[in-house]
């Protein structure tokens, strides 16, 4: 699915200050799937061009419970679509990792998350899958599932660190407009 032709259209990514990112998304119904199939290739293109590894529907203004992931491990593309994801198990073992988010350009911070998770989700073919994930994939799924509930990675930080990042984002926004 990766396409390096940058004349392809991409979607605008909402920036952290946009209140839409704080809304809880709606469960995907069978009748939503065809619409999702249409937008997913453009979402991947948007994510690849922004050099991201995950992108949730609300980040491109879609209020539905799904996200895309492609870790590009060893430069190999492995696009995944998670519809109505449910993390039903999280390991007590946690780890910290420098996280970013396409809605927070150039901002990174250490976030503590469970090292292993089990997640149930529907794919684009409408099939229900259950997987166990660890490491970066587990982190990415937790980060993106948060987006579907209006939670952003800075919410996991101390209010001091969160405020510093939010202020930088607001400052940058003002500079651009
Ligand atoms: Ni994000």
* Strand coverage percent: 25-35%
Secondary structure category: alpha+beta
What is the class in the CATH system? Alpha Beta
Helix content: 25-40%
Number of domains: 1
Catalogue the ligands.
nickel (II) ion
The description of the largest β-sheet is: 5 strands, antiparallel
Provide keyphrases for this structure:
single chain; 177 residues; alpha+beta; Peptide Deformylase; 5-stranded antiparallel beta sheet; two-stranded antiparallel sheet; binds nickel (II) ion
Topology diagram in text:
Elements: H1 33-49, E1 54-56, E2 66-69, E3 80-90, E4 94-101, E5 104-114, E6 116-122, E7 128-134, H2 135-148, H3 159-176
Antiparallel strand pairs: 1-2, 2-3, 3-6, 4-5, 6-7
The site of nickel (II) ion has 5 residues, from helix 2.
Describe the protein's architecture and organization.
There is one protein chain. The protein has 177 residues and is an alpha+beta fold. It has one domain: Peptide deformylase (Peptide Deformylase). It has three helices and seven strands. It has helices at residues 33-49, 135-148, 159-176; strands at 54-56, 66-69, 80-90, 94-101, 104-114, 116-122, 128-134. The strands form two sheets. The chain has a five-stranded antiparallel beta sheet with strand order 1-2-3-6-7. It has a two-stranded antiparallel ribbon with strand order 4-5. Strand 6 (116-122) and strand 7 (128-134) form a beta hairpin. The chain is globular, with a radius of gyration of 16 Å. It starts with 32 loop residues before the first helix and ends with a helix. The structure holds nickel (II) ion. Nickel (II) ion is lined by residues 101-103, 143, 147. Nickel (II) ion binds next to helix 2.
